[in-house]
Amino acid sequence: MRVMFRFAGDAAEEQARSLHDWLLLDRDIRRAGVLEMASSSASVAGQQGTTIFDLVSLVLGNGISAASLGVSVASWRATRPKEPTITVERADGSKVTISGTSSDEARRLLEQLLSEQR
Fold it and tell me: If both were cysteines, with which of 46, 47, 92, 101 could 105 make a disulfide (CB 3.0 to 4.6 Å apart)?
């Protein structure tokens, strides 16, 4: 299953890098998935510029549960000075935006989204 974590606003790249680094510290995620930084903006041929990496892409195998990933992401949000708005999207287009919710609610929303496909 492919999952993308998208961020918006001025701090989008910093938030994406922070989540990416946080998830890399999770042994279960490293073992069961492939994690990478990406950009939601397509590069324009012949145009130089700075690419903004504003999303984290995670391809998960069967070795991790939706609950485990939900806990990890909710824990990361709780460590941020201001819990960021994050849109989590599956490859089939199903998504949920988490903003201003408690850690428990964020975890529950993530688990629900990720469990629907399995």
Answer: 101
* Alpha helix stretches (DSSP H) within the chain: 12-25, 27-32, 66-79, 103-117
3-state secondary structure of 45: coil
C-alpha distances out from residue 44 to 38, 47, 50, 51, 63, Å: 15, 6, 11, 10, 37
Which residue, 52, 55, 59, is CA-closest to 84? Answer: 55
Q: pLDDT tens for residues 55-78?
A: 898 888 776 777 788 888 889 998
**What is the model's pTM?**
0.83
Question: What count of other Cβ atoms lies within 10 Å of the Cβ of residue 114?
Answer: 24
